[in-house]
């Protein structure tokens, strides 16, 4: 049992150095071997900073069974939104699988979407399922954005679907703008310089936000 422990202190004791800080509470009962442990427990993280991003809280149930570490009932609150679902990691073949949903995610609070000349806002929800080798899982994701805002101009809604096959990502996006249409189709290679082949079609689109 761990109560109100500092994540940074635990990492130092375990010889780890991930950019994660916060407070952890956990209970765990386990036995077996390193390759095939079995047991169950629960953990919660609060006041977390992970890779420079604030996370209000993260909780999950943990189980070791069938050579796997399984996380169920994942609940994370961050970026004024929340993420829920399950995930698992196989110690033998190093395969992963996950099934996650997110809602009420504030895009304005995601620094990677903000550029010097283009500020992005809106509220997003998503579903993402994946399975396969840790380095190249097969991922199927759906994204829906409401109230998309570019440089202060409100455009409307947007939906996107992404499917990966190895290092190849197939992308499809469609707009739901009141007086315009936008469509994106194509593929992106997820390695090297990420060469892409994308087709963009639009009509009636207000170019003021981009200018």
- Could you list the spans in which at least 5 consecutive residues all have pLDDT below 50? none
Structural class: mainly beta
Mean pLDDT: 92
The beta-strand count equals: 13
**What's the gyration radius in Å?**
20 Å
Distance between the termini: 57 Å
Please, how many helices?
Answer: 1
Biggest sheet strand order reads: 1-2-3-4-5-6-7-8-9-10-11-12-13
Percent of residues in β-strands: over 45%
- Binned, the helix content reads under 10%
| Overall geometry | globular
Strand count, sense and barrel status of the largest sheet are: 13 strands, antiparallel
> What is the chain-wise order of helices and strands?
EHEEEEEEEEEEEE
3D structure, described in words:
The chain is mostly beta strands and 211 residues long. The chain has one helix at residues 7-14, and strands at residues 2-6, 20-32, 37-50, 53-65, 68-78, 81-90, 95-106, 120-133, 138-150, 153-165, 168-176, 181-189, 196-203. The mean pLDDT is 92. The protein is built from 1 helix and 13 strands. The chain is globular. It has a 13-stranded antiparallel sheet.
